[in-house]
Amino acid sequence: xxxxxxxxxxxxxxxxxxxxxxxxxxxxxxxxxxxxxxxxxxxxxxxxxxxxxxxxxxxxxxxxxxxxxxxxxxxxxxxxxxxxxxxxxxxxxxxxxxxxxxxxxxxxxxxxxxxxxxxxxxxxxxxxxxxxxxxxxxxxxxxxxxxxxxxxxxxxxxxxxxxxxxxxxxxxxxxxxxxxxxxxxxxxxxxxxxxxxxxxxxxxxxxxxxxxxxxxxxxxxxxxxxxxxxxxxxxxxxxxxxxxxxxxxxxxxxxxxxxxxxxxxxxxxxxxxxxxxxxxxxxxxxxxxxxxxxxxxxxxxxxxxxxxxxxxxxxxxxxxxxxxxxxxxxxxxxxxxxxxxxxxxxxxxxx
Length: 351
Ligand SMILES: [Cu+2]
Description:
Layout: H1 2-35, E1 47-49, E2 69-84, E3 87-94, E4 103-106, E5 110-117, E6 128-129, E7 149-155, E8 160-165, H2 171-176, E9 180-186, E10 196-205, E11 215-217, H3 221-226, E12 231-234, E13 247-250, E14 254-263, E15 268-273, E16 277-281, E17 291-294, E18 296-299, E19 303-310, E20 315-321, H4 325-329, E21 333-339
Parallel strand pairs: 1-2, 2-5, 3-11, 4-9, 10-14, 13-21
Antiparallel strand pairs: 2-3, 5-7, 6-8, 8-9, 10-12, 14-19, 15-18, 15-20, 16-17, 16-19, 20-21
The chain binds copper (II) ion.
Copper (II) ion binds next to loops.
């Protein structure tokens, strides 16, 4: 009896506890919803569909003080396009640009990434994001056949600027064909406000014909293995940042360049002729103090840097890989046109 009574009491007590606990949970859930607190999968937050941004543009700052569940869809494509005036190449890419779109999320976000491989592709593709903590940076679960679709979710735990790339064998070939891009994981405290932000990514291309050969140029695995590219370019094409494509700014503006290096093999000595970087977030790491007053910064293959400077004097500033043969003989040149009044107290010609 005692035992039965105890059991009965326990049962009664348990029912009551369960009911109270349930009501507490309901009240907490209502409070959480009212406050806009996370209510999806653990640590997720509200669902946001991300619209990726093609180069040289950068999406606006995140401006969220809470993590979110970011839904992102990328599609791998294979297409023919100019790599230089008079020269075409069969690019492989995320989306229809090289580099692929700029992705901007916040530290603590959970990203639900769907990777589609266009039905017109001839090869499987995948994605390895250096911002991912998990096997292959996502590549293990995103090997995607033409017309197929894969997905995975991951939590962005480390703020910084990261490279993403295809990691389907033969990996150097997929990267050399243009399969890379950048993802920025903003820190919980926002980045300094800039007047202009640009997305620039270096990559090298290995073609059967030499630099400047006209017509469609096929990929050369032999030159890739020898690490002897014919083209070293910014944003997928010689001259992409010249003329109409030149970056534009005004005197007095603070500029941030999110610079990546897809490689697949070369290390970039990134320099802007006529400027000194006020700050460089070396190797794209955020959370460390930036380096100040830098002339040229090294960007490893599969790495990135955030460089910041203010333009005080009008004119054209030239972005280069200061391994200078690449700039003058292989295409690693871009332009930043700065408009505005002269600043003779800083720079003036003299007779
Ligand atoms: Cu690929």
